Protein 1
Amino acid sequence: MAQSRSLICKGCWQTMHVPIALRGPLAVPFRIVGLRPSRMNPNTCTLCELMFERVMKATKITIDATILFADLRAYTRLSQSMSAASMGGMLDVFYDECAGAIWDHDGLLNKTIGDAVMAVFNFPIRQADHTRQALLAAREIQRRIERRKAEAGLELGVGIGLHCGELSFGEFGRSHRDLTAIGTVVNTASRVQGAAEAGEILVTEAVRERVGDLTDAGAGQPYPLKGFDSPVMLYRA
Ligand SMILES: [Zn+2]
């Protein structure tokens, strides 16, 4: 994968107009003081991850963001017949393709959880159109996985769910500090992903309201989601 990577941190440039060099000879002095490309988004830096304490003087912030969950569907079924090595290889392909698609749209690959990934759009790189970028990333994940399937004859299928709204983002936990997003928006996005079939992207009403021009004009369908009293309207995107 040859993604174009930013030479300076997009997050620091956007919030502080400070050019933190991430690559090339100019990055050397920054590496010496411990500033490196973030593992969650290589176009941002490790300072961005600490921005809460250093810049915002808070450990958490409330932001409007879009959450993307993507889950490898064939994994459980295949894991019974595959060797550990080829299973690991398939997960690597999945993680790599998700990461590439998410970073191309300036999202943060926040977590890999077993055979799923969770991404946050609108932090640390702020995007006025973060919901649109998240949907474009979701579509790119599906395209990339389709291509890999065809190339390698791998039985891969990915279900994706999106939801957006206000959530709490920051450092949680005392002994093991974890930079992540929490709140009902995150839980809902996870449930929406659970309802998506392999090869499908499902979005909530809130997402459709923001990116209606990108989704099918078709009516949504009510889905019974775990943890919800009544069915939730979801839309194929
Ligand atoms: Zn930065």
Protein 2
Amino acid sequence: MTHARYTIDCDVLPAFTAAYLRVGGDECAFIETHTALAVPKLLAALEARGRRPEDVRWIVVTHAHLDHAAGAGTLLGKCPNATLLAHPRAARHLVDPTKLVASATKVYGAARFAELYGAIDPIPEERVRALDDGATFELGGATLSVHHTAGHAKHHFIVFDPTLQTVYTGDTFGLVYPALQRGARFAIATTSPTDFDAAEARKSIDKVLSLGAKAACLTHFDEVRDLDEVGAQVRAWVDRSEAWLERAASSGETLEAMTKSIETSLREAIADDASRRGLALGEADWKLLATDIDLNAQGIAFSANKKRALTA
Ligand SMILES: [Zn+2]
């Protein structure tokens, strides 16, 4: 049996968001879909390997965030024999994407939403399989397993592929943008709204490492093989984020003010950490990081606000 995987650049920006084509014998799977706008790229990757949409058995999404799963409905429409595999909490929202669309439209506005994500097609319930923690699925004689990993999102799982010694980590194992790997490794965490939980995030990083895979395939972006180093860096960002969360939760600041001060701390910490690694961040680098800095600050402030409400 031939077993292989290929990285597909979904090209929202170059080398920013990946999907993976996994081939096992006569069968294929996609891991991550990005948005409907990326579906032609996914289908082209299939064709480039001499495979047909009919060969796709599984479409797997690590979680329901739109840059991972918004294209799933459109892709399923093109792949008549495929079943969508998702975390039970994600599956619900993909079958009925009303909530996903509403919350993203609130953040971006309708016009920007359409530009970023295209349409989000609902998914027929009978074409979705929700996978519990530890569940497995077969691909061309290989057995892959999923492991629930909260911390970034409550609806997140990672996919372990022992045949290829690979773990597909979604957003659990941070962000490693190729443009920022100039000499030394530089990884950061993603703490975007609304589920950031530091203790769970650390457990999930440990889970990735405990699988013993040789390669981690990150959605943002591509394969890394120095898992211990990436894990240590992402964990350090989770720890820092937790400290900012605690500080914000015990401050008297409004949500808006908290977000602003966390963003300032985050920018300073990124500049420090990068320079410690010999990485001089230029204007283009800050532009590349702008969305993550914005979302990370929002996510930490959101969780701080939630914590404050719980302890009030
Ligand atoms: Zn995410």
